Amino acid sequence: MNSPAALTRPTLAVFAKEPVPGRVKTRLAAAIGAARAADVYRDLTADTLAHAVAARDAGIVGAIELWCAPDADTPYFRQVAATACAQRRTQTGDDLGARMTHAIADALTRCPRVLLIGTDCPVLDAPVLAAAARILDDFDAVLGPAEDGGYVLVGGTRPLPFPDVRWSTPHALADTIAGFADAGIRVATMPALWDVDDPADLARWDALRRAAAPAA
User: Which residue, of 2, 40, 96, 149, has the greatest Cβ tally within 10 A?
Assistant: First the structure.
């Protein structure tokens, strides 16, 4: 049973896909090949879950929920969820907005605050999650923008709608903010971060990992 203290920490929902070549990181795959792009996606997922575990260990978030597509009950998802001690759940909905609406509303039945992230942003670490959690003390929702006009994090203390969002375009963040405003949702935005979508982003991540690697 979760302790009262744990229930005040936001649940962290992580959206992830099965790393099947040709079905993940398709824009990156056009430049580096589908097999390598799937490996990059697998590495990004592992990195994201490592940040999630660090945030949980630091008391920043409570439960970690791995929201899987297309199916949570696969050997891959069973393994990565077990490594992170995460609960596995299957994404439900016809588009990304519907899937996020469902996941946030579902998680809110277990915890009063939810943060939802994807697996594309390797710099979305424990301090960023802590800053997002603090924002939910004063706002209904929080958005973590991406440099390309999308966003890498959304969180809320109430169910969130995502109507008419132009996904995978530079308009996604603005469309989401407009939808929240129409619904009377008070939202705050965080500083923009970068995610890994193309070879330049991958080179940026590779440089970050080289800099963080211990000296031989």
Answer: 40
CA dist., res. 55 & res. 38, Å (int): 26
Sign of the dihedral defined by the CA atoms of residues 14, 20, 21, 27, in that order: negative
One-letter amino acid for residue 50 of the chain: A
Which two tokens mark 146?
């991406």
Render pLDDT for 153-165 as a digit per residue (tens, 0 to 9): 999 999 999 999 9
Mean predicted lDDT score pLDDT of the chain = 95
Q: How far apart are CA 140 and CA 188, in angstroms?
A: 8
DSSP string, 83-150: HHT-EEEE--SSSHHHHHHHHHHHHHTT-S-EEEE-SS-TT--HHHHHHHHHHTTT-SEEEEEBTTSS
Which domains, from first to last, does the chain contain?
7-207 (3.90.550.10)
Nearest to 141 by CA among 104, 110, 94: 104
Please name the amino acid found at residue 216.
A
Could you tell me if 66 and 44 are in contact, meaning their C-beta atoms sit under 8 angstroms apart? no
Are 104 and 138 a contacting pair, CB within 8 Å?
no
- Give CA–CA dist 92/112, Å, rounded: 21
